[in-house]
Amino acid sequence: MAQDVIVIGGGIVGVSTAIHLLRRGRSVLLVDKNTPGRETSFGNAGIIQREGVRPHAFPRDLATLMQVGLHLSTAARYDPFALPRVTPALMRYWWKSSPNHYSHVVRSYAPLIARSIDEHSDLIAASGAEDLVIKKGWYLAFRTAEKLKAEAAKAKKDHELYGINHRVVDGAEMAQIEPDFTERLAGAIHWTDPWTIRNPGALVAKYFELYKSMGGRFLGGEATGLEQDGDDWAITVADTRYTAREVVVTLGPWAPEVLEPLGYRLPLFVKRGYHMHYGTQGDAKLNNWLIDAEVGYCLAPMEQGVRLTTGAEFALRDAAPTPVQLGRAEGRARALFPLGERLDPQPWKGARPCTPDMMPIIGPAPKHRGLWVGIGHAHHGFTLGPATGHLLAQAMTGEKPAIDIAPFGMDRFAGTYPR
Ligand SMILES: Cc1cc2nc3c(=O)[nH]c(=O)nc-3n(C[C@H](O)[C@H](O)[C@H](O)COP(=O)(O)OP(=O)(O)OC[C@H]3O[C@@H](n4cnc5c(N)ncnc54)[C@H](O)[C@@H]3O)c2cc1C
Question: Looking at the domain assignment, is residue 17 inside a domain?
Answer without folding.
Answer: yes
